[in-house]
């Protein structure tokens, strides 16, 4: 898969197993969210998930600090100005990735299908390229433009409802916003990794996002309790919160950045775009969610477009895949 190996690397089998696990978890995350929405309001599921991810990230952050420093870690200066700059960076990255990306993704799934959401969010690399080009971080080539054309055509094919019906439009829009949030997080995060390691940046943004969404989580918890529905939330509801908060958010990001040490960002990013395929197939098998010809054609166009873009020069410094969503 184009892995970029170095001394002391794990075996190719461990790389493959880690990558397969990551794709499986993020693909299954769509189905788990759908199951959780049967017992929890969309806003509550999203807020609970984000707060739990932040809680789990705290001990992981301390473990990361206790480890030996690597060449990717640069210590923060202790000046007041430096600390304020770091706090601002972590806060807006937490908003972009945790609230705008993961939050809109979770709520959006309540109003659209797994196949629609997964394919639309798969267009995030297109926005990453556009934003990177606008900031002078990545050139636009003919190959990339062709790839973007395919991917946008696929997203439009999936997003437009037959007969102009409005069903699913809100969910598709929220999925689109989630993709934008991930793209902005990736591009702006490129600057932040000069100060933080990629792992610490991900964990700190989880914590910052949890703090931002905590009032919403408390409001939703009280609302559910006042309506007498708290006791009705069973294994499916709380299990979905745990899976999404712990596995799909906190743990998966740690695994992602571990893989990033041994693979080029473009290669790892390309592999994770198997999510739409995995999510749609799992939805078919577990939720009996039908795959229409429109969704199948749109999905193939998106995958083809992203493949064309991600297989350009293989520049390991390319922003695609540098940071990840779910």
List keywords for this structure.
single chain, 326 residues, mainly alpha, 12 helices, 72% helix, disordered N terminus, disordered C terminus
* Count of discrete structural domains: 1
Strand content: under 5%
Helical segment count: 12
Low-confidence stretches at least 5 residues in length (pLDDT < 50)? Answer: 1-7, 68-78, 161-167, 313-326
Rounded to the nearest angstrom, the radius of gyration is 19 Å
Going by helix content, strand content and strand pairing, the class is mainly alpha
* Percent range of helical residues: over 70%
Q: Mean pLDDT, rounded to whole units?
A: 75
Order of helices and strands: HHHHHHHHHHHH
Amino- and carboxy-terminal Cα gap: 21 Å
Q: Which outline best applies?
A: globular
Oligomer: single chain
Largest sheet: none
Question: Would you count the extended β strands for me?
Answer: 0
Would you kindly provide a written description of the structure presented here, covering whatever features stand out?
With 326 residues, the protein is an all-alpha fold. The protein has one domain (12-310). Helices cover 72% and strands 0% of the residues. The chain contains twelve helices and no strands. The chain has helices at 12-36, 42-66, 80-108, 114-121, 124-134, 142-159, 169-192, 198-226, 235-260, 265-272, 275-287, 293-310. α2 (42-66) packs antiparallel against α3. The longest helix is centred in the first third of the chain and has 29 residues, at 80-108. It is globular. The two termini are 21 Å apart.
């Amino acid at each position: 898969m184009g892995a970029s190996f170095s001394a002391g690397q794990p075996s190719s089998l461990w790389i493959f197993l880690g990558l397969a696990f990551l794709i499986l978890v993020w693909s299954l995350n769509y189905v788990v969210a759908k199951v959780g929405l049967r017992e929890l309001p969309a806003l509550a599921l999203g807020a609970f998930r984000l707060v739990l991810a932040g809680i789990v990230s705290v001990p992981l952050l301390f473990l990361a600090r206790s480890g030996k420093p690597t060449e990717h870690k640069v210590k923060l200066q202790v000046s007041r100005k430096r600390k304020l700059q770091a706090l601002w960076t972590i806060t807006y990255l937490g908003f972009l990735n945790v609230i705008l990306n993961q939050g809109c993704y979770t709520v959006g799934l309540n109003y659209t299908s797994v196949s629609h959401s997964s394919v639309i969010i798969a267009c995030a690399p297109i926005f990453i390229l556009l934003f990177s080009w606008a900031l002078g971080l990545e050139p636009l080539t003919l190959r990339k433009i062709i790839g973007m054309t395919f991917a946008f055509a696929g997203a439009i094919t999936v997003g437009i409802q037959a007969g102009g019906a409005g069903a699913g439009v809100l969910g598709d829009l929220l999925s689109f916003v989630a993709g934008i949030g991930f793209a902005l997080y990736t591009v702006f995060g490129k600057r932040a990794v000069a100060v933080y390691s990629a792992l610490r940046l991900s964990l700190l943004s989880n914590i910052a996002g949890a703090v931002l969404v905590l009032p919403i989580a408390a409001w939703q918890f009280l609302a559910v309790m006042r309506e007498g529905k708290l006791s009705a939330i069973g294994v499916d509801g709380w299990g979905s919160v745990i899976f999404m908060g712990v596995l799909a958010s906190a743990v998966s990001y740690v695994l992602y950045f571990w893989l990033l040490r041994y693979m080029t960002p473009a290669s790892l990013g390309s592999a994770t775009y198997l999510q739409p395929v995995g999510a749609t197939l799992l939805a078919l098998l577990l939720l009996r969610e039908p795959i229409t010809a429109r969704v199948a054609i749109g999905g193939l166009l998106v995958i083809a477009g992203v493949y064309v873009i991600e297989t350009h020069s293989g520049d390991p410094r390319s922003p695609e895949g540098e940071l990840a969503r779910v």
